[in-house]
Protein backbone atom coordinates (compact mmCIF):
# COMPACT_ATOMS: atom_id res chain seq x y z
CA UNK A 1 0.00 0.00 0.00
CA UNK A 2 1.30 3.43 -0.91
CA UNK A 3 2.42 5.91 1.63
CA UNK A 4 -0.09 8.57 2.59
CA UNK A 5 2.27 11.18 1.19
CA UNK A 6 2.79 9.18 -2.01
CA UNK A 7 0.63 8.90 -5.12
CA UNK A 8 -2.23 7.13 -3.37
CA UNK A 9 -2.27 9.71 -0.58
CA UNK A 10 -2.25 12.54 -3.12
CA UNK A 11 -5.14 10.96 -5.04
CA UNK A 12 -7.11 10.51 -1.81
CA UNK A 13 -6.58 14.19 -0.89
CA UNK A 14 -7.76 15.26 -4.35
CA UNK A 15 -10.88 13.09 -4.17
CA UNK A 16 -11.81 14.01 -0.57
CA UNK A 17 -11.34 17.73 -1.26
CA UNK A 18 -13.46 17.52 -4.41
CA UNK A 19 -16.17 15.54 -2.60
CA UNK A 20 -16.47 18.00 0.27
CA UNK A 21 -16.59 20.98 -2.08
CA UNK A 22 -19.20 19.35 -4.31
CA UNK A 23 -21.49 18.44 -1.41
CA UNK A 24 -21.45 22.00 -0.07
CA UNK A 25 -22.05 23.42 -3.53
CA UNK A 26 -24.91 20.99 -4.23
CA UNK A 27 -26.77 22.20 -1.12
CA UNK A 28 -26.23 25.86 -2.07
CA UNK A 29 -27.41 25.34 -5.62
CA UNK A 30 -30.49 23.40 -4.56
CA UNK A 31 -31.57 26.15 -2.17
CA UNK A 32 -30.89 28.79 -4.83
CA UNK A 33 -32.92 26.85 -7.42
CA UNK A 34 -35.91 26.79 -5.07
CA UNK A 35 -35.62 30.55 -4.48
CA UNK A 36 -35.05 31.58 -8.12
CA UNK A 37 -37.06 28.87 -9.88
CA UNK A 38 -34.19 28.53 -12.37
CA UNK A 39 -34.01 25.31 -14.35
CA UNK A 40 -30.32 25.91 -15.06
CA UNK A 41 -29.65 26.26 -11.33
CA UNK A 42 -31.53 23.01 -10.64
CA UNK A 43 -29.47 21.32 -13.35
CA UNK A 44 -26.33 22.60 -11.70
CA UNK A 45 -27.56 21.22 -8.37
CA UNK A 46 -28.01 17.81 -10.01
CA UNK A 47 -24.56 18.23 -11.55
CA UNK A 48 -23.00 18.75 -8.11
CA UNK A 49 -24.94 15.80 -6.66
CA UNK A 50 -23.58 13.62 -9.46
CA UNK A 51 -20.07 14.89 -8.75
CA UNK A 52 -20.47 14.09 -5.04
CA UNK A 53 -21.57 10.53 -5.86
CA UNK A 54 -18.59 10.32 -8.20
CA UNK A 55 -16.18 11.21 -5.40
CA UNK A 56 -17.66 8.50 -3.16
CA UNK A 57 -17.14 5.96 -5.95
CA UNK A 58 -13.58 7.18 -6.55
CA UNK A 59 -12.77 6.94 -2.85
CA UNK A 60 -14.09 3.37 -2.92
CA UNK A 61 -11.87 2.73 -5.95
CA UNK A 62 -8.78 3.97 -4.13
CA UNK A 63 -9.41 1.89 -1.01
CA UNK A 64 -10.41 -1.39 -2.66
CA UNK A 65 -7.71 -1.34 -5.34
CA UNK A 66 -4.92 -1.22 -2.73
CA UNK A 67 -5.73 -4.64 -1.25
CA UNK A 68 -2.80 -7.11 -1.56
CA UNK A 69 -2.92 -10.18 -3.84
CA UNK A 70 -4.52 -13.36 -2.52
CA UNK A 71 -5.30 -16.86 -3.74
CA UNK A 72 -8.39 -15.83 -5.70
CA UNK A 73 -6.73 -12.73 -7.18
CA UNK A 74 -3.01 -13.51 -7.52
CA UNK A 75 -2.34 -10.32 -9.51
CA UNK A 76 -4.02 -8.14 -6.90
CA UNK A 77 -7.03 -5.86 -7.04
CA UNK A 78 -5.55 -2.99 -9.02
CA UNK A 79 -8.23 -3.10 -11.72
CA UNK A 80 -10.93 -2.39 -9.14
CA UNK A 81 -9.86 1.23 -9.48
CA UNK A 82 -10.91 1.10 -13.14
CA UNK A 83 -14.23 -0.59 -12.36
CA UNK A 84 -15.33 1.97 -9.76
CA UNK A 85 -14.06 4.81 -11.92
CA UNK A 86 -16.19 3.47 -14.77
CA UNK A 87 -19.21 3.53 -12.45
CA UNK A 88 -18.30 7.14 -11.63
CA UNK A 89 -18.51 7.99 -15.33
CA UNK A 90 -21.90 6.29 -15.53
CA UNK A 91 -23.01 8.28 -12.48
CA UNK A 92 -22.06 11.56 -14.17
CA UNK A 93 -24.21 10.64 -17.16
CA UNK A 94 -27.17 9.10 -15.33
CA UNK A 95 -27.41 11.51 -12.39
CA UNK A 96 -26.19 14.69 -14.03
CA UNK A 97 -26.63 14.68 -17.79
CA UNK A 98 -30.01 12.97 -17.99
CA UNK A 99 -31.55 15.16 -15.27
CA UNK A 100 -30.16 18.29 -16.94
CA UNK A 101 -31.69 17.27 -20.26
CA UNK A 102 -35.04 16.63 -18.57
CA UNK A 103 -34.97 19.92 -16.68
CA UNK A 104 -33.93 21.82 -19.80
CA UNK A 105 -36.66 20.51 -22.07
CA UNK A 106 -39.26 20.86 -19.30
CA UNK A 107 -38.27 24.51 -18.93
CA UNK A 108 -38.26 25.20 -22.68
CA UNK A 109 -41.61 23.59 -23.41
CA UNK A 110 -43.30 24.12 -20.01
CA UNK A 111 -45.44 26.95 -18.75
CA UNK A 112 -43.76 30.33 -18.57
CA UNK A 113 -42.78 31.23 -15.00
CA UNK A 114 -41.58 34.56 -13.73
CA UNK A 115 -37.96 34.65 -12.60
CA UNK A 116 -37.54 35.37 -8.90
CA UNK A 117 -34.51 36.86 -7.10
CA UNK A 118 -31.89 36.29 -9.84
CA UNK A 119 -29.33 38.04 -7.61
CA UNK A 120 -29.43 35.00 -5.32
CA UNK A 121 -28.50 32.83 -8.28
CA UNK A 122 -25.59 35.08 -9.22
CA UNK A 123 -24.22 35.06 -5.68
CA UNK A 124 -24.47 31.28 -5.35
CA UNK A 125 -22.85 30.73 -8.76
CA UNK A 126 -19.99 33.07 -7.85
CA UNK A 127 -19.40 31.29 -4.54
CA UNK A 128 -19.61 27.91 -6.24
CA UNK A 129 -17.08 29.02 -8.88
CA UNK A 130 -14.63 30.09 -6.18
CA UNK A 131 -15.05 26.81 -4.27
CA UNK A 132 -14.81 24.63 -7.39
CA UNK A 133 -11.63 26.48 -8.35
CA UNK A 134 -9.95 25.20 -5.18
CA UNK A 135 -10.68 21.59 -6.10
CA UNK A 136 -9.75 22.21 -9.75
CA UNK A 137 -6.37 23.71 -8.82
CA UNK A 138 -5.58 20.65 -6.66
CA UNK A 139 -6.51 18.30 -9.53
CA UNK A 140 -4.38 20.25 -12.00
CA UNK A 141 -1.46 20.34 -9.55
CA UNK A 142 -1.57 16.58 -9.05
CA UNK A 143 -1.91 15.85 -12.77
CA UNK A 144 1.04 18.10 -13.61
CA UNK A 145 3.16 16.49 -10.90
CA UNK A 146 2.27 13.01 -12.14
CA UNK A 147 3.06 14.04 -15.74
CA UNK A 148 6.45 15.44 -14.71
CA UNK A 149 7.24 12.24 -12.80
CA UNK A 150 6.54 10.21 -15.95
CA UNK A 151 8.44 12.68 -18.21
CA UNK A 152 5.31 13.39 -20.24
CA UNK A 153 3.54 16.53 -21.34
CA UNK A 154 0.23 17.38 -19.67
CA UNK A 155 -1.76 16.21 -22.71
CA UNK A 156 0.26 13.01 -23.15
CA UNK A 157 -0.26 12.13 -19.51
CA UNK A 158 -4.04 12.51 -19.79
CA UNK A 159 -4.02 10.11 -22.75
CA UNK A 160 -1.69 7.54 -21.16
CA UNK A 161 -2.69 7.86 -17.49
CA UNK A 162 -3.07 4.59 -15.57
CA UNK A 163 -4.73 6.25 -12.54
CA UNK A 164 -8.20 7.40 -13.63
CA UNK A 165 -9.06 9.06 -10.30
CA UNK A 166 -7.09 12.27 -10.83
CA UNK A 167 -8.25 12.48 -14.46
CA UNK A 168 -11.87 12.01 -13.39
CA UNK A 169 -11.65 14.77 -10.77
CA UNK A 170 -9.90 17.10 -13.24
CA UNK A 171 -12.50 16.56 -15.95
CA UNK A 172 -15.50 16.83 -13.65
CA UNK A 173 -14.14 19.99 -12.00
CA UNK A 174 -13.43 21.51 -15.42
CA UNK A 175 -16.99 20.63 -16.48
CA UNK A 176 -18.29 22.14 -13.22
CA UNK A 177 -16.57 25.48 -13.89
CA UNK A 178 -17.83 25.59 -17.47
CA UNK A 179 -21.32 24.56 -16.29
CA UNK A 180 -21.39 27.44 -13.79
CA UNK A 181 -20.60 29.91 -16.56
CA UNK A 182 -23.38 28.40 -18.70
CA UNK A 183 -25.85 28.63 -15.80
CA UNK A 184 -24.82 32.25 -15.19
CA UNK A 185 -25.47 33.04 -18.85
CA UNK A 186 -28.85 31.26 -18.75
CA UNK A 187 -30.05 33.17 -15.71
CA UNK A 188 -28.71 36.45 -17.11
CA UNK A 189 -30.39 36.04 -20.50
CA UNK A 190 -33.63 35.03 -18.76
CA UNK A 191 -33.47 38.23 -16.74
CA UNK A 192 -32.65 40.41 -19.77
CA UNK A 193 -35.21 38.93 -22.17
CA UNK A 194 -37.89 37.77 -19.78
CA UNK A 195 -37.95 34.40 -21.57
CA UNK A 196 -37.25 31.18 -19.65
CA UNK A 197 -36.22 29.51 -22.91
CA UNK A 198 -32.67 30.72 -22.27
CA UNK A 199 -32.73 29.05 -18.86
CA UNK A 200 -33.83 25.81 -20.49
CA UNK A 201 -31.18 26.05 -23.21
CA UNK A 202 -28.55 26.50 -20.50
CA UNK A 203 -29.77 23.30 -18.83
CA UNK A 204 -29.58 21.37 -22.10
CA UNK A 205 -26.03 22.67 -22.69
CA UNK A 206 -25.02 21.56 -19.19
CA UNK A 207 -26.48 18.12 -19.92
CA UNK A 208 -24.54 17.90 -23.20
CA UNK A 209 -21.34 18.94 -21.41
CA UNK A 210 -21.77 16.23 -18.78
CA UNK A 211 -22.57 13.62 -21.43
CA UNK A 212 -19.31 14.41 -23.26
CA UNK A 213 -17.27 14.21 -20.04
CA UNK A 214 -18.96 10.92 -19.09
CA UNK A 215 -18.16 9.48 -22.54
CA UNK A 216 -14.48 10.49 -22.37
CA UNK A 217 -14.04 9.05 -18.86
CA UNK A 218 -16.01 5.91 -19.75
CA UNK A 219 -13.81 5.31 -22.81
CA UNK A 220 -10.65 5.74 -20.71
CA UNK A 221 -11.76 3.21 -18.10
CA UNK A 222 -13.05 0.79 -20.72
CA UNK A 223 -9.58 0.62 -22.26
CA UNK A 224 -7.96 0.07 -18.88
CA UNK A 225 -10.45 -2.65 -17.89
CA UNK A 226 -10.01 -4.51 -21.17
CA UNK A 227 -6.28 -4.60 -20.58
CA UNK A 228 -4.21 -1.80 -22.11
CA UNK A 229 -0.50 -2.18 -22.76
CA UNK A 230 2.05 -0.24 -20.74
CA UNK A 231 3.49 3.10 -21.81
CA UNK A 232 5.16 2.58 -25.24
CA UNK A 233 8.33 4.21 -23.91
CA UNK A 234 8.50 1.57 -21.16
CA UNK A 235 7.73 -1.22 -23.64
CA UNK A 236 10.62 -0.14 -25.88
CA UNK A 237 12.90 0.10 -22.84
CA UNK A 238 11.97 -3.43 -21.75
CA UNK A 239 12.55 -4.75 -25.23
CA UNK A 240 15.95 -3.05 -25.52
CA UNK A 241 17.02 -4.36 -22.10
CA UNK A 242 16.12 -7.92 -23.05
CA UNK A 243 17.72 -7.68 -26.49
CA UNK A 244 20.98 -6.47 -24.93
CA UNK A 245 21.25 -9.51 -22.63
CA UNK A 246 24.17 -11.74 -23.73
CA UNK A 247 22.10 -14.91 -23.33
CA UNK A 248 19.36 -13.74 -25.71
CA UNK A 249 19.69 -13.90 -29.47
CA UNK A 250 16.28 -12.40 -30.29
CA UNK A 251 13.18 -11.03 -28.60
CA UNK A 252 10.45 -12.91 -30.46
CA UNK A 253 7.37 -11.55 -28.65
CA UNK A 254 6.68 -9.01 -25.94
CA UNK A 255 3.32 -8.36 -24.29
CA UNK A 256 2.55 -5.97 -21.45
CA UNK A 257 -0.64 -5.15 -19.61
CA UNK A 258 -1.61 -2.70 -16.89
CA UNK A 259 -2.71 -4.66 -13.81
CA UNK A 260 -3.57 -1.45 -12.00
CA UNK A 261 -2.04 1.90 -11.16
CA UNK A 262 1.77 1.59 -11.18
CA UNK A 263 1.53 -2.16 -11.81
CA UNK A 264 2.59 -3.75 -15.11
CA UNK A 265 2.61 -7.38 -16.22
CA UNK A 266 5.38 -8.36 -18.68
CA UNK A 267 5.17 -11.55 -20.74
CA UNK A 268 7.94 -12.16 -23.25
CA UNK A 269 9.10 -14.96 -25.54
CA UNK A 270 12.80 -14.95 -26.34
CA UNK A 271 15.21 -17.07 -28.35
CA UNK A 272 18.08 -17.99 -26.03
CA UNK A 273 21.57 -18.89 -27.24
CA UNK A 274 21.43 -22.60 -28.14
CA UNK A 275 24.76 -23.17 -26.42
CA UNK A 276 23.18 -22.46 -23.01
CA UNK A 277 22.19 -25.31 -20.74
CA UNK A 278 18.89 -25.61 -18.89
CA UNK A 279 20.42 -24.26 -15.69
CA UNK A 280 21.90 -21.27 -17.55
CA UNK A 281 18.49 -20.42 -19.03
CA UNK A 282 16.80 -20.67 -15.63
CA UNK A 283 19.32 -18.37 -13.98
CA UNK A 284 19.10 -15.92 -16.88
CA UNK A 285 15.31 -15.74 -16.56
CA UNK A 286 15.52 -15.02 -12.83
CA UNK A 287 18.21 -12.39 -13.32
CA UNK A 288 16.44 -10.62 -16.18
CA UNK A 289 13.15 -10.51 -14.27
CA UNK A 290 14.90 -8.92 -11.29
CA UNK A 291 16.69 -6.41 -13.56
CA UNK A 292 13.44 -5.35 -15.23
CA UNK A 293 11.71 -4.86 -11.89
CA UNK A 294 14.66 -2.81 -10.62
CA UNK A 295 14.93 -0.63 -13.74
CA UNK A 296 11.20 -0.14 -14.24
CA UNK A 297 9.53 0.40 -10.88
CA UNK A 298 6.03 -0.20 -12.30
CA UNK A 299 6.91 -3.73 -13.46
CA UNK A 300 5.52 -6.11 -10.83
CA UNK A 301 5.27 -9.45 -12.68
CA UNK A 302 7.62 -10.87 -15.34
CA UNK A 303 7.22 -14.10 -17.29
CA UNK A 304 9.94 -15.18 -19.74
CA UNK A 305 9.38 -18.11 -22.09
CA UNK A 306 12.18 -19.65 -24.19
CA UNK A 307 11.08 -20.22 -27.80
CA UNK A 308 12.74 -20.77 -31.21
CA UNK A 309 12.47 -17.65 -33.36
CA UNK A 310 11.88 -19.77 -36.47
CA UNK A 311 8.60 -21.33 -35.31
CA UNK A 312 6.12 -20.42 -38.10
CA UNK A 313 2.95 -20.51 -35.97
CA UNK A 314 4.45 -18.25 -33.31
CA UNK A 315 5.78 -15.83 -35.93
CA UNK A 316 2.37 -15.70 -37.60
CA UNK A 317 0.60 -14.91 -34.31
CA UNK A 318 3.07 -12.11 -33.52
CA UNK A 319 2.66 -10.63 -37.00
CA UNK A 320 -1.15 -10.72 -36.65
CA UNK A 321 -0.92 -8.84 -33.35
CA UNK A 322 1.82 -6.31 -34.04
CA UNK A 323 2.82 -6.43 -37.68
CA UNK A 324 6.56 -6.27 -38.36
CA UNK A 325 8.12 -6.00 -34.90
CA UNK A 326 11.36 -4.61 -36.28
CA UNK A 327 9.44 -1.61 -37.64
CA UNK A 328 7.30 -1.28 -34.51
CA UNK A 329 10.24 -1.07 -32.11
CA UNK A 330 11.84 1.67 -34.20
CA UNK A 331 8.75 3.95 -34.07
TrEMBL record:
<dbReference type="InterPro" id="IPR036837">
    <property type="entry name" value="Cation_efflux_CTD_sf"/>
</dbReference>
<keyword id="KW-0813">Transport</keyword>
<feature type="transmembrane region" description="Helical">
    <location>
        <begin position="169"/>
        <end position="189"/>
    </location>
</feature>
<feature type="transmembrane region" description="Helical">
    <location>
        <begin position="119"/>
        <end position="137"/>
    </location>
</feature>
<protein>
    <submittedName>
        <fullName>Cation diffusion facilitator family transporter</fullName>
    </submittedName>
</protein>
<dbReference type="GO" id="GO:0008324">
    <property type="term" value="F:monoatomic cation transmembrane transporter activity"/>
</dbReference>
<dbReference type="GO" id="GO:0006829">
    <property type="term" value="P:zinc ion transport"/>
</dbReference>
<dbReference type="GO" id="GO:0016020">
    <property type="term" value="C:membrane"/>
</dbReference>
<keyword id="KW-0472">Membrane</keyword>
<dbReference type="InterPro" id="IPR040177">
    <property type="entry name" value="SLC30A9"/>
</dbReference>
<dbReference type="InterPro" id="IPR058533">
    <property type="entry name" value="Cation_efflux_TM"/>
</dbReference>
<feature type="transmembrane region" description="Helical">
    <location>
        <begin position="82"/>
        <end position="99"/>
    </location>
</feature>
<feature type="domain" description="Cation efflux protein transmembrane">
    <location>
        <begin position="16"/>
        <end position="225"/>
    </location>
</feature>
<keyword id="KW-0812">Transmembrane</keyword>
<dbReference type="Pfam" id="PF01545">
    <property type="entry name" value="Cation_efflux"/>
</dbReference>
<dbReference type="InterPro" id="IPR002524">
    <property type="entry name" value="Cation_efflux"/>
</dbReference>
<dbReference type="InterPro" id="IPR027469">
    <property type="entry name" value="Cation_efflux_TMD_sf"/>
</dbReference>
<feature type="transmembrane region" description="Helical">
    <location>
        <begin position="201"/>
        <end position="218"/>
    </location>
</feature>
<feature type="transmembrane region" description="Helical">
    <location>
        <begin position="12"/>
        <end position="32"/>
    </location>
</feature>
<keyword id="KW-1133">Transmembrane helix</keyword>
